Amino acid sequence: MSVEYSTPPCVWLVDDDDEDLLLMRAAFNSVDPRIEIRTMADGEDLLPQLQDTRPFPHLILIDLNMIYLNGFDALAQVRALPQFGHLPVVVLTTSNNPADRQKSTALGANDFHTKPDSFPDLTQLARDLTRQWLPETPL
């Protein structure tokens, strides 16, 4: 089965904090304005959006602490379906708890990052994520 990814590259942000969504969008925009950003305000939106969308996003960033469906449960839902097993899902959260990192990894997260405290650090994280998961995007 061939996988069809979006062009231009697309990153999905799943977080219920509007300010964090705004800052992450701005960080990716400063790295490469061609990267399309799609936002969802809760984990309960992720699986239905994935089931209804083609082509696939290049990367999904998901927060752990959301009101209706937290990041752990949303990640478990995505990883329970083989057709989404290839999608990179990275946890981006305020937590620096090693148990949260371990649980995220056990549920199938490709990586885990604690949200940086400054915009320059957030931009550097967006640059690193772009290099790792959107390799065809020239920086």
UniProtKB/TrEMBL annotation:
PROSITE patterns tied to this protein: RESPONSE_REGULATORY
InterPro entries found in the cross-reference section: CheY-like_superfamily, Sig_transdc_resp-reg_receiver, TCS_response_regulator
Matching Pfam families: Response_reg (PF00072)
Entry-annotated residues carrying 4-aspartylphosphate: D63
Alphabetic keyword roster: Phosphoprotein
Gene Ontology BP annotations: phosphorelay signal transduction system
Ranges of residues in domain Response regulatory: 10-130
Listed name of the protein: Response regulator
